[in-house]
From TrEMBL:
InterPro entries in the cross-refs: RecG_C_sf (IPR038475), Schlafen_AlbA_2_dom (IPR007421), Schlafen_AlbA_2_dom_sf (IPR038461)
Organism ancestry: Bacteria, Bacillati, Chloroflexota, Caldilineae, Caldilineales
Name the UniProt record assigns to this protein: Transcriptional regulator
Domain Schlafen AlbA-2: 16-127
Tree of life domain: Bacteria
Pfam family, one: HATPase_c_4
Length: 406
């Protein structure tokens, strides 16, 4: 908003309104959190630091500028729930430095120390109950509209990369047909007069979806031992990109450290720590069923000497329980599920996991995870729901060599 310095200065001369707020210096943290959340809950806006209430440009000073930017980022992360996505820019005008904080209209409804606030005119107001209810519903936190079909603020048509979205468009389509299909497939959704990427469109058709949706990637760590101890951390990776790439990268990470033991009886007998078919199903489930509105956490994969742990943000959808996982189905992200069911798995992996597409929607995934892992290790994998996160633990098989751990 107000991308050019000239446009911004003209706005300063006009004074504060529903789109811009002036701050002579960095305000108190709670007050700043309230201002940011109020803009995010409305149509977005700009906080301009270094400008007096009467529109006089006084500047911050270089030292205050750096500290102010740091504090703004911390406030968005620590004082607003869920955290707010912002853009900061340092500006110079007439020898004076300013800090511009650009707050886009959010996907979510945010609570700050002052409650649920929204920008109205040149001030912020706590939202009445009926207004808050309507906002929650319209932004899908009431789950009236699937979250993965919601518009992602600050994206454009060009946010979707052709190499990725072409997979969902029929071959030979004209440019006009491509635009129509992107909209029909809900990869692009209307936001007022323009089209923007949907959550599913961003997750499947952009090489850095976490630039727009915080923590929408898989973090993997391998420890040589049974505890999370940095001294025994052997490898750590963050897997970004479209969801299918994240799944494959995480799969290959496990494959790299999935140790195999062997014993010679009549012929040669081999045993791996984990069923890679079960691992594949677990990774797909974690990616497609996680709650992407939970931006405070990421999907995490931890490998230890005796087990594999996978955590996915979000409670189980609808009325599904941990005990009913094998027998029930509930798809949180229907659009994502449809898109992943159209993407083929590379041939060498397809043979290992006995699956042609990333998602085949037969409801067999949890059963495969439980049965194949139990047959290999003798221990039943454990699902747990703790607060708003689903955890899966798969136990490693013992070595075929007596007295040795895999």
């Amino acid at each position: 908003m107000f991308d050019s310095l000239t446009e911004l200065v003209e706005k300063v001369h006009l004074g504060e309104d529903s789109t811009i707020e002036f701050k002579r210096q960095l305000p108190r943290r709670d007050s700043l959190a309230d201002e940011i959340a109020a803009f995010a809950n409305a149509r977005g806006g700009v906080i301009l630091m270094g400008v007096d209430d009467n529109g006089e440009i006084v500047g911050l000073g270089q030292r205050n500028l750096d500290q102010s930017e740091k504090t703004v980022v911390e406030v968005c992360r620590d004082s607003i729930e869920p955290q707010v996505s912002i853009f900061t820019e340092k500006l110079r005008f007439d020898g004076k430095v300013l800090l511009k904080v650009d707050i886009p209209r959010s996907l979510f409804v945010h609570k700050s120390p002052g409650g649920y606030l929204a920008r109205q005119g040149s001030s912020k107001r706590e939202m009445p109950t009926d207004q808050l209810a309507r906002l929650l519903q319209s932004r899908s936190q009431a789950r009236i509209i699937s979250f993965d079909e919601q518009v992602v603020p600050n994206t454009t048509r060009n946010t979707l990369h052709k190499d990725f979205y072409q997979r969902f468009i029929r071959e030979g389509a004209t440019e006009e047909e491509v635009e129509d299909l992107l909209q029909k497939r809900r990869l692009l959704v209307r936001d007022g007069p323009v089209y923007r990427a949907s959550v599913a469109g961003l997750l499947m058709c952009h090489d850095r979806p976490d630039d727009y949706l915080y923590n929408s990637f898989i973090q993997a760590v391998f420890y040589r031992g049974k505890t999370k101890d940095a001294n025994y951390q052997i490898d750590a990776k963050d897997f970004r990109g479209p969801l299918d790439r994240q799944i494959m990268d995480a799969y290959k990470f496990v494959e790299r450290y999935n140790q195999v033991s062997a014993r010679k009886d009549v012929g040669r007998t081999e045993r791996s720590q984990y069923s890679m078919r079960a691992v594949f199903e677990a990774l797909v489930n974690a990616a497609v069923h996680r709650d992407y509105s939970k931006t405070v956490s990421k999907t995490r994969l931890f490998m230890f000497s005796d087990r594999l742990e996978l955590s996915s943000p979000g409670a189980l959808a609808n009325t599904l329980t941990v005990e009913r996982l094998r027998y029930g189905q509930a798809t949180r992200n229907e659009l994502l599920a449809r898109l992943l069911s159209e993407i083929t798995v590379e041939d060498n992996v397809s043979r290992q996991v006995a699956r042609r597409y990333f998602l085949e929607r037969r409801g067999e995934g949890v059963g495969i995870i439980l049965d194949e892992s139990t047959a290999l290790s003798g221990k039943v994998p454990v699902y747990e729901q703790i607060d708003e996160t689903l955890f899966l633990t798969i136990f490693a098989a013992k070595s075929l060599q007596p007295g040795q751990d895999l």
